[in-house]
């Protein structure tokens, strides 16, 4: 009988959730959803030196934010230490593992000798031979090693195809450290067996661990899962993604103002394509077509520019009401979620690439008139003309007469003014823009005026008129 499909995401909590890890989580999730399987989250925190509880919590919260909905967990390996020790005892009993008393010094000497001889280091097996001889009276600190037999280890990777390793090249690797804590190899395999994991999709960097894991599955008499090793993610410099080329964690992208759905979409395209030139694909669509076996072998390049473009696409397609909750943490002042705000968000959402940009754009609409600053370039470009005060006064009067205060009404009033005076409409609109938002550019000016409201718009023109002598001198 085939087992129900189960995948897992198994991060080590040694830092923030790396975007590569998030991509692994997403691929696991999508493959599971596509095939009606489930996914569990397992925190691999047995490395006490490097694991931190707050990192585990951050990883969980980053996954929740990203919308990676696991079906089980988080399970903490640190809660299962006894189980690993128990299973290692079984291997010792079966003879698939042995105690190794070699001291750090002995191992260092061996390593140095190998280095001098230009050979790749491999444990000499001196304790294995002692165990074979039935040398029982050895005592003192020891580790437990797995007994690796020579022979070929083959498996079919969903992404890389047929892979094989020679047992001769593998070390008798350590399963239990001298402090009785398990190594990654032991805990990962014990857990994958206990938790009925059928598919292991993880980073390429684990490929060389897989033969060891296969040997362990066999030693435990368990079914070997299907493996899929995901290609590396490179930075824009074509080297392994690192801080050199920008942000690397989900948290950082969150604080830069990337939407979770956009990041999810972007990460799902790192090594996978839904076909054609399609770049925008929702999670539920991906869940219908994703398959680990369609993932590319070649490394994927993390293109920040594409991510911010994609984020802009998501922003421009989202209703303002849905953007608001994401925007909250970027607002520098309290802003109510009323119709005026939604109107302003709608004005800016397709001009913004990030929530940060969008939040920034809202400022002139909410600050006190007195706090509005005039951009120097806007001042020198549009406020230097001789008759600028007169034009501002005329446009003010024209707007004051618009009732009701609508976009069309404002547009008509200024067009009439321009016709009457024989000046271009721009001669009125540009200084008006400086008055209303202090900047060289903005969304269409009457949208801006309506978003500000009549009263505030007129006040801001008056204020600029009052400041004009100082500004234009
Ligand atoms: N804990 C490992 C890591 O964070 C992953 C283990 C696995 O997926 O087998 O790299």
Give the helix/strand layout.
Elements: E1 6-9, H1 19-34, E2 38-43, H2 53-66, E3 72-76, H3 81-94, E4 97-100, H4 104-116, H5 126-132, E5 143-146, E6 152-157, E7 161-166, E8 174-176, H6 184-194, E9 199-203, H7 210-219, E10 226-230, E11 233-234, H8 250-256, H9 260-268, H10 283-289, E12 300-301, H11 304-317, H12 320-327, H13 339-348, H14 355-366, H15 376-382, H16 388-400, H17 407-421, H18 426-437, H19 445-452, H20 454-472
Helix pairs in contact: 1-10, 6-7, 9-11, 12-13, 13-19, 16-17, 16-18, 16-20, 17-19, 18-19, 18-20
Glutamic acid binds next to loops.
Description of the structure:
By secondary structure, the chain is mainly alpha-helical. Helix content is 48%, strand content 11%. It contains 20 helices and twelve strands. It has helices spanning 19-34, 53-66, 81-94, 104-116, 126-132, 184-194, 210-219, 250-256, 260-268, 283-289, 304-317, 320-327, 339-348, 355-366, 376-382, 388-400, 407-421, 426-437, 445-452, 454-472; strands at residues 6-9, 38-43, 72-76, 97-100, 143-146, 152-157, 161-166, 174-176, 199-203, 226-230, 233-234, 300-301. A three-stranded parallel beta sheet has the order 1-2-3, covered by helices on one side. It has a three-stranded antiparallel beta sheet with strand order 4-5-8. It is elongated, with a radius of gyration of 32 Å. The model has no long low-confidence stretch (mean pLDDT 94). Glutamic acid is lined by residues 10-12, 44, 188, 202, 206. The site of glutamic acid has 7 residues, from loops.
């Amino acid at each position: 009988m085939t087992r129900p499909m189960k995948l897992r995401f198994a991060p080590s909590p040694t830092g923030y959730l790396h975007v590569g890890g998030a991509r692994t989580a997403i691929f696991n999730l999508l493959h599971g959803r596509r095939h009606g399987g489930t996914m569990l989250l397992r925190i691999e925190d047995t490395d006490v030196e490097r694991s931190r509880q707050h990192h585990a919590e951050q990883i969980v919260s980053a996954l929740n934010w990203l919308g990676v909905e696991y079906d089980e967990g988080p399970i903490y390996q640190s809660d299962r230490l006894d189980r690993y020790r128990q299973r290692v005892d079984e291997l010792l009993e079966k003879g698939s593992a042995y105690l190794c008393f070699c001291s750090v010094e002995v191992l260092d000497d061996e390593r140095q000798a190998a280095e001098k001889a230009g050979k790749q280091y491999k444990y000499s097996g001196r304790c294995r031979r002692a165990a074979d001889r039935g040398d029982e009276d050895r005592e003192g600190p020891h580790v437990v090693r797995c007994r690796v037999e020579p022979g070929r280890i083959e498996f079919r990777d969903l992404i890389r195809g047929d892979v094989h390793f020679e047992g001769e090249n593998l070390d008798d690797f350590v399963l239990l450290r001298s402090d009785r804590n398990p190594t990654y190899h032991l805990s990962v395999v014990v857990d994958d067996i206990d938790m009925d994991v059928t598919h292991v999709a993880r980073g390429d960097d684990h490929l060389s661990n897989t033969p060891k894991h296969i040997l362990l599955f066999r030693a435990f008499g368990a079914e070997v899962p299907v493996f899929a090793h995901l290609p590396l993610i490179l930075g824009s410099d074509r080297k392994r993604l690192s801080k050199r080329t920008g942000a690397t964690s989900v948290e950082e992208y969150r604080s830069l103002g990337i939407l979770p759905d956009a990041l999810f979409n972007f990460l799902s395209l790192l090594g996978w394509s839904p076909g054609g030139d399609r770049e925008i694909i929702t999670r539920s669509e991906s869940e219908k077509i994703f398959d680990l076996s369609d993932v590319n072998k070649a490394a994927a390049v993390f293109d920040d520019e594409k991510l911010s473009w994609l984020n802009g696409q998501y922003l421009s397609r989202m209703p303002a009401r849905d953007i608001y909750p994401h925007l909250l943490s970027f607002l520098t002042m309290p802003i109510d979620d009323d119709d005026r705000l939604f109107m302003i968000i709608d004005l800016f959402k397709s001009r913004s690439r990030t929530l940060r940009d969008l939040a920034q754009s809202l400022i002139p609409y909410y600050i006190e008139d007195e706090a509005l600053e005039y951009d120097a370039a806007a001042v020198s470009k549009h406020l230097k003309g001789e008759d600028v005060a007169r034009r501002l006064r005329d446009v003010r009067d024209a707007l004051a007469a618009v009732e009701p205060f609508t976009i069309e009404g404002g547009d008509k009033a200024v067009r009439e003014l321009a016709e009457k005076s024989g000046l271009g409409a721009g001669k009125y609109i540009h200084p008006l823009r400086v008055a209303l938002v202090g900047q060289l550019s903005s969304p269409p000016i009457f949208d801006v005026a309506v978003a500000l409201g009549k009263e505030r718009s007129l006040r801001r023109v008056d204020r600029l008129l009052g400041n004009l002598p100082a500004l234009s001198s």
